[in-house]
Amino acid sequence: AKAAGKGRYQFYHAHLSDRLVLRINREQALRQAIERDEFILHYQPRVDTATGRLCSMEALVRWQHPERGMVPPVEFIDVAEDTGLILELGGIVIEKACAQIARWKAEGLPVVPVSINVSALQFNDGHVTDILADAMRRHEVDPELVGVELTESCMAGEHDTVAGEMEGLRRLGVKLLVDDFGTGYSSLSQLQRLNVDILKVDRAFTVTLGKDAEGTALFKAIVSMADALDICIVAEGVETAEQLQALQSLECDEVQGHFVSRPVPAAEMAALMLKRFLF
Ligand code: C2E
Ligand code: CA
Ligand code: CA
Ligand code: CA
Predict the structure, then answer these.
(1) Which 3 state secondary structure label does DSSP give 242?
(2) Is the shortest distance between the CB of 121 and ligand 1 below 6 Å?
(3) Whole-structure pTM value
(4) What pLDDT is recorded for position 13?
(5) Nearest ligand to residue 206 Cα
(6) 206 lines ligand 1 (CB under 6 A)
(7) Does residue 258 have its Cβ closer than 6 Å to ligand 1?
C-alpha cells in the first residue's frame, strides 16, 4: 500500500510539474505577445431591441498569433489573470479602444459608446480609473463614448473600496456596466446603490427564452425590477429570432449577440455605424 501511495505521489508530482511547465510556457508566450504587440480589438454591436438601432458596442480582445491565427480570449485571459499580466493587457485594451474611438472620430463617423471589459484583478488594483483617464485625455476621447464592464466579482470586495473605485469611474463621466449579471451574487438594489447604469444579463438566461416558462418568467422579473430602478437592461448572447421576439415582448432595452452581429474588426464596425439600423 505504501509503495502504491508513493507511486501515486510521484505520478501526481510529475503531473503537477508538467502543468507548471505548461503554465510558465504560456506566461512567456503571453509576455512575448505583449512585447510584439499582437493583440487587437474586435467590436460587437449592441442595439435597441425595438428598432435595431445601433446604441453601443463592446471591445473584445483577440490575440493575432503569427502561427496559430486569431486566438480567442478564453485561451489566454485566465493565464493573464493568474500571472498578473492582465494588468498590462488591460492597459493595452484601454489604450487601443481610446485610440480607435479617436480614429473613428477623425474619420467623421457617427461613433457610439464603446464599452471596455475590466477584470476583477485590474479593478481591485486601484489604478484603472487613472489609466483610463490618462488614455481618454491623450486621445481626446469624450467620456460619453466610454463604458466600463465590470463583473459581479469586481464588486465582491470590501464595500467602501469598491464604491470608491466605482465613484471615481463615475466622476470621469463614463458609463458603468455590470457584465454576466445573474452568474454571481449581487442584488439589483446593491447595483443601484453603486450607481450602475447598465446591466448585461448573462447568456445563460437568454438561452432559456421561449424554451422554458420559468426562464422567461425570471428574465421578465429582472427586466421589471431594473426598470423600476432605472437601470438599462441588455440581453447577451441573442442568437435567434425567437429570442429577439421574446425580448421585444418583455421590453428588454437592448440586445447583443450573433443574431445581430458577431464581434467584427474595426473597419467592419465602421460600416455598421454608417448603417445605423442593424435589423
Ligand atoms: P464577455 O465579456 O461576456 O463577452 C461576450 C462574449 O460572448 C464574447 O466572447 C462574444 O464573442 C461572445 N458572444 C457574443 N454574442 C454571442 C452569441 O450570440 N452567442 C455566443 N455563444 N457567444 C456570443 P469572446 O470575445 O470570446 O470573449 C470571451 C470573454 O473573454 C468575455 O466575455 C470577457 O469575459 C473576456 N474578455 C474579452 N475581451 C476582454 C478584455 O479586453 N479584457 C478582459 N478583462 N476580458 C475580456
Ligand atoms: Ca463583457
Ligand atoms: Ca458578458
Ligand atoms: Ca425606468
Answers:
(1) helix
(2) no
(3) 0.94
(4) 62
(5) 1
(6) no
(7) yes
What is the DSSP secondary-structure string of 23-64? HHHHHHHHHHHHHTT-EEEEEEEEEETTT-BEEEEEEEEEEE
- The complex scores an ipTM of 0.98
Neighbours of 190 (CB within 10 A): 14
Among 30, 60, 198, 269, say which to mutate for ligand 1: greatest number of ligand atoms within 8 Å of CB. 60
Distance from Cα 236 to the centre of ligand 3, integer Å: 6
Cell representation of residue 132: 483610463
**pLDDT of res. 2:** 43
**What is d(CA 72, CA 77) in angstroms, rounded to the nearest whole number?**
9
- Regarding the beta carbon of 275 and ligand 1, being less than 6 Å apart is answered no
Task: Select from 199, 215, 201, 210 the least CA-distant residue to 241.
Answer: 210
pLDDT for res 1: 39
C-alpha dist (Å) from residue 265 to 42, 58, 116:
5, 12, 15
Partners of 117 in beta bridges:
149
Q: For the chain of 279 residues, list the mean pLDDT of each consecutive stretch of 10.
A: 48 70 90 98 98 98 95 95 96 98 98 98 96 98 98 89 94 97 85 93 94 90 93 97 97 98 98 98
Cell (9 digits) for 220: 421578465
CA of 50 to the centre of ligand 1 (A): 24
